[in-house]
Design a protein that fits this description.
41% of the residues lie in helices and 15% in strands. The chain has 391 residues and is of the alpha/beta class. Helix 4 links the parallel strand 3 and strand 4. Helix 2 crosses helix 9 and helix 10 packs antiparallel against helix 13. The radius of gyration is 21 Å and the shape is globular. The two termini are 42 Å apart. It binds pyridoxal-5'-phosphate (PLP). The site of pyridoxal-5'-phosphate has 12 residues, from helix 3.
Length: 391
């Protein structure tokens, strides 16, 4: 049957870009304004302050008109010099991509191999730094929530490991798929640069790249020698004081960001995190009842933003995803890099509630049957029972 129109709502359950709430979409549609005028200045100052609360920092946050990759590049070019060593960890596809950015910028990457099923091991961080007597390592770079696997590394334990090693390296954390979904505290956890972007927990379309910056990172930026122009924090921070930018900001996304910040604050950040934790737990219960394996091996590292699911041997994850999209109009995340074909990802982050999760899990369970993937029925029921009882 060929269809040109699907009735009802599309289910967008990839782990970002996520569903954009109606209120945010309406805000986005406001008339474009003068980005050098007083109204924009007030708007920019309001969102710059609001973002600090989301990053849980009293320090500056900069906003680029960019995707997350730009915000990665910004974190590196502002703090490091050509030939500097950075310590990175192969937690999954996005860690590998970030390594590629670092190498292309002329940094020397000490890349700790990984199995794509576990997060960064704090003991390895401590051992690597303790062995670096000359302090050649200038930054430790960690992907907080590895979107390709659904594994969340434990940033506070990594910070403690760095402190135990008494090593002065900067700590750079990618929160692209955790910010606004999973508890994250830039100041309290002693992170120097936090990288974020708009299209995941912040519930916005793609288009904004974010850096939250510690005082130590600011000091490092004065010594750093990697070439930087577009990404330079200096002119940004200077102009931001009055609510302006050194080049044209993504003005309409600022309206949307203001509305998204209101939504997050109306719900309360602690409640936002608890909602994500609860949906993640319901999802894992469904997956385990189906008899399928979760990519993340260590329960202490389960991601509350998405769940990576391994296919039984001989079953193709993309064939399953294709059937689910065609029959039920539900988009699930593809397996990335090493997990292509062998895993799929259920996104449960952003503007999301119990019934959206229930519909998503129904789509997966019906798809497993339609694609003849060996599984036990009833995962949806188990998830519903959990949702009915867990507050
Ligand atoms: C953890 C993580 N880091 C970095 C990126 C790259 O961001 P972008 O595709 O917006 O450039 C992504 C994208 O999904 C991501 O999930």
């Amino acid at each position: 049957m060929s269809r040109t129109h699907s009735a009802g709502r599309h289910f967008l359950q990839i782990p970002g870009p996520t569903n954009v709430p109606e209120r945010v979409l309406r805000a986005l549609a406001a008339p474009t304004i003068d980005h050098r005028g007083p109204d924009f200045g007030r708007l920019a100052k309001e969102v710059l302050t609001g973002l600090r609360r989301i990053f849980q920092t009293n320090g500056p946050v900069v906003i680029y008109p960019s995707s997350g990759t730009g915000a990665w590049e910004a974190s590196l070019v502002n703090t490091l010099s050509s030939g500097d060593t950075v310590l990175m960890f192969e937690t999954g596809h996005f860690a590998v991509l970030w390594k590629g950015v670092a190498e292309r910028l002329g940094l020397s990457v000490d890349f700790v191999p990984g199995d794509w099923r576990t997060g960064v091991d704090p003991a390895v961080v401590e051992a690597r730094l303790a062995a670096d007597g000359t302090h050649a390592i200038k930054a430790v770079c960690v992907v907080h929530n590895e979107t390709s696997t659904g594994v969340a590394s434990r940033i506070p334990l990594i910070r403690q490991a760095m402190d135990r090693a008494r090593h002065p390296a900067l700590l750079l954390a990618d929160t692209i798929s955790s910010l606004g979904s999973i508890d994250y505290r830039h100041d309290e956890w002693g992170v120097d640069v936090t990288i974020g972007c708009s299209q995941k927990g912040l519930m916005l379309p793609p288009g904004l790249g974010l850096n939250a910056i510690s005082q130590k990172a600011l000091a490092a930026s004065r010594e750093a020698r990697l070439p930087r122009a577009y990404w330079n924090w200096g002119p940004m921070l200077e102009e931001n004081q009055a609510g302006f930018f050194p080049y044209t900001p993504a003005t309409n996304l600022f309206y949307a960001l203001r509305e998204a910040l209101h939504l997050l604050e109306e719900e309360g950040l602690a409640n936002v995190f608890a909602r994500h934790d609860r949906h993640a737990e319901a999802t894992r219960r469904a997956v385990q009842s189906w008899g399928l394996e979760i990519v993340c091996k260590n329960p202490a590292e389960y991601s509350s933003a998405l769940t990576g699911v391994l296919m039984p041997a001989g079953c193709d994850a993309d064939a399953l995803r294709r059937i689910i999209l065609e029959r039920f109009d539900l988009s699930l995340g593809t397996g990335l890099g090493k997990l292509k074909g062998t895993a799929f990802r259920i996104g449960h982050l952003g503007d999301f509630n119990d019934l959206m999760l229930s519909g998503t899990l129904c789509g997966v369970e019906m798809g497993l049957a339609a694609a003849r993937v060996p599984h036990r029925k009833g995962g949806v029921q188990v998830a519903l029972e959990y949702l009915a009882t867990a507050r």
